[in-house]
Design goal:
The complex is a heterodimer of chains A (about 190) and B (about 650). Chain A has helices at about 15-30, 75-80, 110-120, 130-140, 145-155, 165-170, 175-194; strands at about 5-10, 35, 50-55, 70-75, 85-95, 125-130. Chain A is an alpha/beta fold and about 190 residues long. The chains are: A alpha/beta (about 190), B alpha/beta (about 650).
Chain lengths: ~190, ~650
């Protein structure tokens, strides 16, 4: 199997580290080698967060080179835009439709329509999901990450590397695992329908 | 964060953070003591060991008051024959530099491993210093894991080397080693050596000049032996054809980038690749052997061109005319951290190959910045909001001498309340000098609780002793919040979560002779305002005053509310009362308060923490709670510290 470069991006506090760790645990269960370069400390305080997840036997270096990301999982649209320069020409994006305003006085943020048009114009395969909205309906916005993950497994190349069973096993020790699994299967079903 | 994986079954392969792998190696070696002070990217080493110690009953683990004391703690244990480690971020070693140098003179009786986690690219730091210089400077060997992949095995070797040579060893990690998670196969845990004995030997442990002069001679001789022995250390390996004209030297994590770059350029079979793990002192005979017959040598290392310099010295001494490339020759950036695309391009350019960074997607849209900010419900937001109002009311010029912690974030608008920020404890230190030299400004030194214990106390005493008028604003949220809620002497817990004696900041201030010590509730803007005014007036009158703004870190408060099943209120805006004055979202800038299209405010109930501080911000009483606020919740907000589990 060839190497897979995944970026997990979003805003500090959205469960990005958890999401990447679960991907890593699942890959490990499938006997795959994984490197996850995390963001800790200062930048976690509501700032932009980017985690590099690399799966494959030949992988040595922790960071994905610009222009070589195969799959981006994003929990927030402005952050999807911010890291587009990492995307390879055949890259796939799965992004939440959520927009979080950076809490800076008088900040100007692009509109939803502008962002969507920009994403479409890249020519990349872009999947948009109301993951946070659905997660909120499930009872906890923090499980949006599992909806994104479930979706990516059923509708992108991630499904060749990890499957739902390995994710469920990896969730065994997570607090609130029932809700996480529920969100995961919800995302998976969205992806199947797609 | 939990660290269950650190106690994984021997022989199993688990996903582990580089820092956890370092901690695991310590348990496999059988260390008896570990200490440190939190700092990104090092904190998880001590956290993981504290977790292990809670489960196993050993080793002894502590969060020390600062890196110097942490170092001395481990040094003392190693003198008594107990294998020990001390972990800190790169700049922490500056604080601990004094005992560091002495430790090379005296040596130790068992392992003393100094873990320095450097932060290239300054993700969470004020500088990009490369602590391998300390190894050269202090005559202490430096071992560098090449990634999270071998952090465990290199730590084990470094501990063993330290014990064999009775000499301290620096284990130099970097952000991408410490904070990379990967598959690690773990070994057996060893029986720890927890107790030692002190062998009295004043000629060795007492560095009066007559002893130190002799010990320096001995140190130079020992360094020669270490240099010779490390030349044949099996941690340094080579691959690829010996007769190649090209040599790439990958040092530490530089090896991983070099190897993958060579692979991408399909050069692994034609170029000789040398992996260096023991970078200081440089393995001289190995370098000479590998340089012979090479036209080109390219050095890839994280940080300063430390190893590049060493190789150039060796090449000069041995009259070798290999052309040496690295960070000083312009191909590899000297600032920031290594990147695979940069290294691939550098190797291709030096070797005259064609390689272009893959065309990346470019878009024509302005992307707003998203710097880290105070959390919704952070007690510091209301404190700085109030302080700024007082300054405006008193019509005084103020210089905010800032410091390191979550409150550093108020450097940004709308608060703009960190005018300097240089190092731990620097707020009060700089405020001393500023107050002597500024004639028409008052100086407010802002410092967090953990930072105050760490390095704020000498500056405070100095200000009182030398009459440096200032207001010291201590932001007390009860924990070392920025690095992940580690306890400190004011928390009431130790590293293992056991109850600890609480040392109060106000007691220290009073004992130090601070003229007036005031305590305000951080979430209560009126309370902060009235006490800040008193404190600042004292400073205007030539006194040293301290305002302790006390209120729980909101993340701790939320955790407590969940644990004790206390309902948190949710606030909302009464749109009939809201007049779109923008104060709550522009001047108070809570991330939960969001402007609507018409300029009025709205509160996102999913982000609102219920801290209640914004209620006093609104001039029109438009911010209200849907339900009556539980008094227990107010108590949780106003009280700092952690409870033992």
């Amino acid at each position: 199997m060839s190497n897979l470069n995944i970026l997990v991006v979003g805003v500090g506090g959205q469960g990005i580290l958890t999401l990447s760790r679960i991907i890593g645990e699942s890959a490990l269960r499938r006997g795959l080698k994984v490197l996850i370069a995390e963001t800790h400390g200062l930048s976690q305080r509501g700032g932009s967060v980017i985690v590099h997840v690399r799966i494959g036997d030949d992988i040595e270096a922790p960071l994905i080179p610009l222009g070589e990301c195969d799959l981006m999982l994003s929990l927030e649209l402005v952050e999807t835009l911010r890291y587009l320069n990492y995307m390879g020409n055949n890259g796939v994006i799965v992004s939440d439709t959520l927009i979080l305003r950076p809490p800076i006085p008088r900040v100007k943020i692009p509109s939803y329509e502008e962002i969507i048009t920009t994403l479409k114009n890249t020519g990349l395969e872009v999947h948009l999901l109301d993951a946070s909205l659905e997660a909120d309906r499930l009872g906890d916005i923090r499980v949006a990450n599992m909806i994104i993950l479930g979706y990516a497994i059923s509708s992108t190349l991630l499904g060749k590397y990890i499957d739902i069973d390995s994710v469920v096993e990896s969730l065994a020790h997570i607090p609130g695992k029932e809700l996480n699994i529920k969100a995961l299967s919800m995302g998976f079903k969205f992806g199947v329908k797609h | 964060m939990t660290y269950e994986e650190i106690l994984a079954e021997p022989g199993s392969t688990v996903l582990m953070l580089g820092n956890a792998a370092i901690a695991r190696a310590c348990l496999e070696y059988g260390i008896g003591l570990a200490s440190g002070y939190p700092g990104t990217p090092s904190s998880e080493i001590i956290e993981a060991l504290a977790y292990a110690s809670r489960k196993l009953g050993y080793p002894y683990v502590e969060w020390s008051i600062n890196e110097k004391v942490a170092f001395e703690n481990a040094y003392g244990a190693a003198i008594s024959g107990v294998p020990s480690i001390v972990a800190m971020k790169h700049v922490g070693l500056n604080v601990a530099a004094d005992p560091l140098f002495s430790s090379a003179y005296t040596g130790v009786e068992s392992s003393l491993l100094i873990v320095s986690a450097d932060d290239p690219a300054m993700w969470s730091s004020q500088n990009e210093q490369d602590n391998r210089w300390y190894g050269l400077h202090a005559y202490i060997p430096v071992f560098e894991p090449t990634g999270a992949q071998d952090a465990r095995s290199v730590t084990l070797e470094a501990l063993k080397f330290s014990s064999d040579y009775k000499h301290p060893v620096i284990l130099r990690s970097v952000t991408r080693v410490s904070h990379t998670r990967t598959n690690i196969t773990v070994g057996q845990l060893a029986k720890p050596k927890l107790y030692g004995e002190f062998k009295r030997d004043t000629s060795r442990w007492v560095l009066v000049p007559s002893n130190a002069r002799r010990l320096r001679e001995e140190l130079i001789a020992k360094w020669d032996k270490i240099t010779k022995d490390l030349s044949d250390n099996p941690l340094n390996t080579s691959e690829g054809p010996r007769d190649s004209r090209i040599l790439v030297i990958g040092v530490g994590v530089g090896y991983r980038y070099s190897r993958e770059a060579l692979q991408r350029l399909k050069l692994l079979d034609t170029v000789r690749l040398l992996k260096i793990t023991t970078s200081i002192p440089p393995p001289k005979s190995l370098i000479v052997r590998e340089l012979e017959g090479k036209n080109i040598a390219i050095i890839v290392e994280e940080g300063d061109p430390v190893f590049e310099d060493q190789v150039k010295i060796i090449a000069y001494d041995e009259r070798l005319d290999t052309k040496i490339y690295g960070k000083k020759t312009g191909y590899i950036p000297i600032t920031g951290e290594l990147k695979l695309e940069d290294i691939t391009k550098a190797l291709a350019d030096i070797l005259g190959l064609n390689y272009r960074v893959k065309s990346s997607v470019r878009v024509n849209i302005e992307i707003p910045p998203r710097p880290p900010v105070l959390c919704p419900g952070c007690p510091y937001r209301s404190v700085f909001y109030a302080i700024r109002r007082v300054i405006k009311k008193l019509k005084v010029n103020v210089v905010y001498a800032g410091d390191i912690g979550c409150y550093s974030l108020v450097v940004n608008p709308p608060f703009n309340a960190q005018d300097t920020l240089v190092e731990m404890g620097g707020s009060i230190g700089l405020a001393n000098g500023l107050s002597h030299t500024l004639r028409d400004s008052i100086v407010i030194a802002t410092i967090g609780d953990s930072t105050f214990y760490h390095a704020g106390i000498p500056g405070t005493i100095n200000a009182v002793y030398n009459r440096a008028p200032m207001t010291i604003l201590v932001l007390d949220n009860g924990v070392t919040a920025m690095t992940g809620h580690q306890p400190h002497p004011g928390t009431g817990l130790d590293a293992l979560g056991r109850e600890a004696r609480r040392i109060k900041i106000e007691d220290i201030a009073k004992a130090s002779g601070v003229d007036s010590v005031l305590i305000a509730k951080s979430f209560n803007i009126r309370d902060v305002e009235s006490k800040a005014e008193l404190a600042i007036r004292e400073a205007l009158n030539g006194k040293v005053s301290m305002l302790i703004a006390r209120g729980s870190c909101i993340l701790t408060a939320i955790a407590k509310s969940r644990r004790y099943k206390v309902k948190r209120p949710v606030y909302s805006i009464d749109l009939d009362k809201c007049r779109a004055c923008t104060i709550c979202y522009n001047a108070f800038a809570c991330p939960a308060i969001i402007p609507r299209g018409d300029g009025k405010a709205s509160i996102d109930p999913r982000i609102c923490t219920g801290c209640s501080a914004c209620v006093d911000v609104c001039p029109f009483e438009a911010i209200q709670s849907i339900e009556v606020v539980d008094e227990t919740w107010r108590g949780i907000l106003d009280e700092v510290g952690l409870d033992s589990e």
